[in-house]
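Hi all, long-time lurker, first post. I run a small reading group and we've been trying to get comfortable going from sequence to structure in the token notation. Rather than ask abstract questions, I figured I'd post a concrete chain and ask someone more experienced to write out its structure so we can walk through it together at our next meeting. Sequence below, copied exactly:
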Amino acid sequence: MTVKIEATTVNYKDGLALTGIAPVVRRFPLVPGIDFAGTVTASTHSDWKAGDKVVLNGWGVGRDPSRRCRARVNGDWLVPLPAGMTAENRHGGRHRRHATAMLAVMALERHGVTPAAGPAVVTGAAGGVGSVAIALLAGLGWQVIASTGRVAEADYLKGLGAAEIIDRAELAGPAKPLAKERWAAGVDSVGSHTLANVLSMTKYGGAIAACGLAQGMDLPGSVAPFILRGVALLGVDSVMAAKALRLEAWRRIGRDLDAGKLAGIARTIGFDEIEAAARDIVDGRIRGRVVVRM
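-- Answer (accepted) --
Happy to help. Here is the structure in token form:
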């Protein structure tokens, strides 16, 4: 498949690669970028033809540059642009963070937890995955508690659908084995002490979908939530997720995500701003998503 790329994003993994904070670049040369949206220009794959609008996220695509105007990729990695999305909201909305947030919500649904059980917490709420998760959960009827280190973003988060804002400091320190039950579900993109605290505060029979490591890869917690409250920790991977799951996630995004909220989630930059954006992402100074103008 050859795809003319119309939009790509800068995300946390790109930030780690571009700043060198973590050894995520395994070989050189490499052009960072793990997602894109665009139009098929040539295809030898039976599912696609020239002119089709497509999305790619994950699959190790950083090995084959997506910071270019065109990419040559495996057609099995692509999914179609959701019905009803225009070129404008494709730039603002079609990329890995939407898919990751939707996969997390779907994991909670498969586990059987519902809004009737209690609130849902979203950590890293002002980030890309967190912002989309809030909008999705609120649209599905959840009372959403947003945890953020940037309480000045409260109006932004409430505009996405958050009912309550808490400071991330409440969850950032060492966790008790069990704490007061506060929520029935959650989407965590932070990891480490934050995830341990979230689990310790999850109601009996609840579930947390984990999809990030902004605070760290460790999980310094206790088995108590699992064996005394029956809490479930659900792993969410958007890099190698099966195509059937991806197709369902993008179908649901087109149906369940309020298109009117997309513009408020995204910020568009040019190529000369990519390195500065990467530093801002790893330093926690980015709200929502960063879309690169191709």
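A couple of things your group might point at:
The chain has two domains: 2-95+262-293, 97-235.
The mean pLDDT is 87.
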